[in-house]
Specification:
Layout: H1 3-17, H2 24-34, H3 40-47, H4 56-86, H5 106-120, E1 124-125, E2 131-133, H6 134-137, E3 166-168, H7 173-182, E4 187-196, E5 208-218, H8 223-237, E6 244-251, E7 254-263, E8 280-289, H9 291-296, E9 305-312, H10 313-321, H11 334-337
Parallel strand pairs: 1-4
Antiparallel strand pairs: 2-3, 4-5, 5-9, 6-7, 7-8, 8-9
Helix pairs in contact: 1-4, 2-4, 5-10
């Protein structure tokens, strides 16, 4: 009997044995009979050198197929008995486990609180697409053509068959443009949503995060209205006894521009880890809407004025919770998320 015939005969034998593996002892005997060094398969492997050269490809293929069959059958049988042995018996006398209820994610909780406060102040909620064009994301917001934010290291550009100006929005200010396009003053809106920036992920920054921006346009709007709005919001959201300071800053779409700090609501201005021992927390950037922005979106800056503000929601969550790594908010770690009860 040549090697090919022996392989076919052994294959028939093994196919008969496989359904009879009904215990651990059967599985172990199957392994010893076929898979060890002195087993049936190894004996046939040693005979392979006697096969004529022209027949070796066919015989080798049959041998490999048989070896795979034996190994997979053994692995499957071994796993089934091992799994059965590890199953714990159920003690029906034990009390039932408490039901675990889910909780709203801290980012969603914070977004809901922010929206509720601004809604109570008369702001409507406006939304827009995550995939934008250059005009809505940059040009109509008074970004110069050579502004650094247009560079590839800051913006995720989207491949498009016919256009080169498609991108993932880098701020929800693009929604402000769409609101000004579609509404006539007076306008009082907030714009919550996801934004995307081509940045390295670290303990303090993400490539995808959330913002809330606000826009108010009407006749006679002044910096005093901006200050009153932000202070009223912060005292309701953070600390009713908070103090504030307004620092000059620069944003392409506002003039004048400012960054707003409030006294730390955790240490009451004495200095702590969250406020970096300064006694102050930066809460948002803001400013009066630049006349160029109003003009680019069909609003006469001689007749109307307005203010805009914006801040990152994840940063607010870090301040409120004391979490020191923004990545914890997205790791789906039950130990973190279970600390936030459902509302």
């Amino acid at each position: 009997m040549n090697l090919r015939e022996q392989l076919l005969q052994l294959a028939t034998q093994i196919e008969t044995e496989i359904p009879q593996l009904q215990s651990r002892e059967d599985v172990e005997a199957f392994r010893i009979r076929h898979l060890v060094k002195k087993g049936t398969l190894q004996a046939l492997v040693e005979q392979l050198r006697t096969v004529p050269k022209e027949d070796k490809p066919e015989v080798g293929k049959l041998l490999n197929a048989l070896r795979d069959l034996v190994q997979s059958s053994y692995d499957s049988a071994f796993a089934s008995f091992a799994q059965g042995a590890s199953v714990d018996r159920i003690d029906v006398s034990l009390p039932a486990r408490d039901e675990k209820t889910g909780s709203i994610h801290p980012i969603t909780q914070t977004m809901d609180r922010l929206i509720a406060i601004f809604s109570s102040m008369g702001f409507e909620v406006a939304e827009g697409p995550d995939v934008e064009d250059d005009a809505h994301n940059f040009e109509r917001l008074n970004f110069a053509s050579d502004h650094p934010a247009r560079d590839m290291q800051d913006t995720f550009f989207v491949e498009h068959a016919d256009r080169s100006d498609v991108l993932l929005r880098t701020h929800t200010s693009s929604v402000q443009v769409r609101v000004m396009e579609s509404m006539k003053p007076p306008i009082r809106c907030i714009m919550p949503g996801r934004v995307y920036r081509n940045e390295a992920v670290s303990a303090r920054s993400l490539a995808e995060f959330h913002q809330i921006e606000g826009l108010y346009i009407d006749k006679g709007v002044s910096m005093a209205d901006l200050k009153g709005t932000i202070m009223a919001f912060a005292r309701k959201f953070y600390d009713e006894h908070a103090e504030f300071r307004f620092r000059t800053s620069y944003f392409p779409f506002t003039e004048p521009s400012c960054e707003i700090d409030m006294s730390c609501f955790l240490c009451k201005g004495e200095g702590c880890r969250i406020c970096k021992h300064s006694g102050w927390l930066e809460i948002c950037g803001a400013g009066m809407v630049h006349p160029n922005v109003l003009r680019a979106n069909g609003i006469d800056p001689e007749e109307y004025s307005g203010f805009a503000f914006g801040f990152g929601v994840e940063r607010v969550v870090l301040m409120l919770t004391g979490i020191d790594d923004i990545r914890h908010l997205y790791d789906n770690d039950f130990r973190v998320l279970s600390q936030f009860t459902a509302q």
